[in-house]
Amino acid sequence: MKKKDLIQKWLDHEQLTSTESEAFKNLDAYDSYVKISETAKKFISPQYNVEQNLQTLQDRLSERQKITNYRINFTYLARIAAVLVLAIGSYFMFFNQDISTVDTLASEKTLINLPDQTEVTLNALSSITYQEEDWDDNRKIKLEGEAYFKVAKGKKFDVVTSSGIISVLGTQFNVKQREGFFEVVCYEGLVSVTYLENATQLSAGNVFRVLDKKIVKTQTSLTKPNWTENRSTFSSTPYKYVLREFERQYNIIIISKNLDQDKLFTGNFVHSDIQTALQSITIPMLLKYEMNDNNITLYKQ
């Protein structure tokens, strides 16, 4: 009998003849076969409940179907949302395509002519936004920063800032809106300034200022703001606002060491020569300065 037939007969627990039994014992792997046989006798197969496992399988399939349906619904909703986003975006692009925005960088000024030939000069780091459509009937402009206006005569002209609204018919005025600082200067005509729902009328030569939430009314002899001619002028202004303006005009960073930045400053500095400008704001305050690349450090003498 062939070796494999002999082993198969033994595995099937068929009776071996004495010759076959002797031949099986002489196999090289006899001991291994016996050990496998003894171990198999000790093996107890786990009980298997057909109905219980069938129910478990059905539950898992049902749960997977729910997940699949959720994914399908989510995909469907996502597609609807995408369509809505595109539709809303198209709507705003269509109806707001006539909105214009002009921004200036540090140390930059620019002149803008509005549709009615009103002139707006933007100071450094400032921005205006306005709508060109029906401009003659709705002259309204949003300002962030500082700008000088020469308003053409016509219907009411509004300048909207985060601190207040300035309204005129035709005049020349300057508006400055910075953090903690709001100022309107009328150079010609009449200006109405609405601050905290209270309106104030300014005639030529009058100044309305809100400094750290305190209203101050003063006068000026200037016929236009000095910054339009590259010079910043200050009158009894906290030093911190002078330093911030200096940073805007020269695009630098000022570091102050133990300085009283609430101390009032009266004076000016030019926008064309940084050394001369630094002397203008440091000598009156008895300060020294050091320049290092784009940084300027101020300290007491």
Automatic annotation (TrEMBL):
Keywords of the record: Membrane, Transmembrane, Transmembrane helix
InterPro entries according to UniProt: FecR (IPR006860), FecR_C (IPR032508), Ferrdict_sens_TM (IPR012373)
Domain Protein FecR C-terminal positions: 233-298
Superkingdom, natural source: Bacteria
Positions of transmembrane segments: 74-94
Domain FecR protein: 101-191
Gene3D superfamilies: 2.60.120.1440, 3.55.50.30
Designated name of the protein: FecR family protein
Species the sequence originates in: Aquimarina gracilis
